[in-house]
């Protein structure tokens, strides 16, 4: 944080309020207040947060399920491997036009594109966590004829959760980035659209102010994910505990 604060202070001291390209940070606050007075800032922030939250939740659920299926079933892994690699390598801007053709404009297409992009780290980390289970533990699991619920709770869950959390740490920033990208490409409501409008109208102060808002949101998201991961893992049993 110290280098960033020093950069902003230097920028403020040497910058000019009349600069059309690099307005000083003091003008950003004025730009944010102007957007808020117009009634456009708060609704855009709410839409972006809603899209991000829904997409991240869906990515966690879908990515965990797919990763568990791939990691636990070698046949599924071999059959779905090439398709998953093809989908994972597809860039988000290339997905947006097809998603718009199939779904149309609106928040739904943004959620679908973000989920499609952000779920792969969770899928891969979850599958690898399941595959890393010790063969002796799996054989003991079969020999004891444990019920499905006990297997999930005492064998698979302790192995899968660290992988899911690691995947979420990677997927959360991706969700933020792709959410803004889709809002720009589809002209949907949100911070991305406001940022694009500021760029098109050459309102530099608004563009930098919205960029600061986006950066702060990404910082808070990452800090929240790290905090949740630490608290969960502190109380989570080790792999195979209480089997």
Folded structure, characterized:
- With 243 residues, this protein is mostly helical.
- The protein has a single domain, classed as MetI-like (MetI-like fold, Orthogonal Bundle), CATH 1.10.3720.10.
- Helices cover 83% and strands 0% of the residues.
- It is built from ten helices and no strands.
- It has helices at 2-14, 25-38, 41-72, 74-88, 92-103, 107-131, 135-143, 148-186, 191-200, 204-235.
- Residues 239-243 have low confidence and may be disordered.
N-to-C series of helices and strands: HHHHHHHHHH
Tally of distinct domains: 1
CATH topology: MetI-like fold
**What is the number of helical segments per DSSP (H or I, 4+ residues)?**
10
User: Total number of β-strand segments?
Assistant: 0
CATH level 4 superfamily: MetI-like
Distance between the ends: 45 Å
Membrane topology: Multi-pass membrane protein
Family: Belongs to the binding-protein-dependent transport system permease family.
Subcellular location: Cell membrane
Keywords: Cell membrane, Membrane, Transmembrane, Transmembrane helix, Transport
Question: What secondary-structure arrangement, pairings included, does this model have?
Answer:
Layout: H1 2-14, H2 25-38, H3 41-72, H4 74-88, H5 92-103, H6 107-131, H7 135-143, H8 148-186, H9 191-200, H10 204-235
Helix pairs in contact: 2-10, 3-4, 3-6, 3-8, 3-9, 5-6, 5-8, 6-8, 8-9, 8-10, 9-10
Which labels suit this protein?
transport; 243 residues; mainly alpha; elongated; transmembrane
Describe what is shown at a glance.
By secondary structure, the protein is mainly alpha-helical. The chain has helices at residues 2-14, 25-38, 41-72, 74-88, 92-103, 107-131, 135-143, 148-186, 191-200, 204-235.
């Amino acid at each position: 944080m110290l280098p960033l604060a020093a950069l902003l202070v230097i920028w403020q001291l040497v910058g000019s309020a009349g600069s059309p390209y690099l307005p000083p940070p003091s003008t950003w606050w004025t730009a944010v207040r102007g957007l808020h007075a117009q009634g456009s800032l708060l609704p855009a922030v709410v839409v972006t947060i809603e899209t991000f939250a829904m997409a991240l939740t869906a990515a966690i659920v879908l990515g965990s399920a797919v990763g568990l299926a791939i990691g636990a079933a070698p046949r599924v892994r071999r059959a779905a491997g090439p398709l998953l690699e093809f989908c994972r390598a597809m860039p988000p801007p290339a997905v947006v036009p097809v998603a718009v053709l199939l779904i149309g404009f609106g928040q739904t297409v943004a959620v679908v594109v973000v989920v499609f992009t952000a779920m792969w780290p969770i899928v891969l980390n979850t599958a690898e966590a399941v595959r890393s289970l010790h063969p002796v533990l799996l054989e003991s699991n079969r020999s004891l004829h444990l019920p499905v619920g006990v297997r999930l709770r005492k064998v698979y869950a302790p192995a899968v959760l660290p992988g899911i959390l690691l995947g979420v740490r990677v997927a959360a920033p991706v969700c933020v980035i792709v959410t803004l990208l889709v809002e720009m490409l589809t002209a949907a409501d949100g911070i991305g659209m406001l940022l694009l409008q500021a760029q098109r109208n050459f309102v530099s102060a608004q563009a930098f102010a919205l960029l600061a808002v986006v950066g702060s949101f990404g910082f808070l998201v990452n800090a929240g994910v790290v905090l949740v991961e630490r608290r969960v893992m502190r109380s989570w049993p080790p792999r195979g505990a209480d089997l």
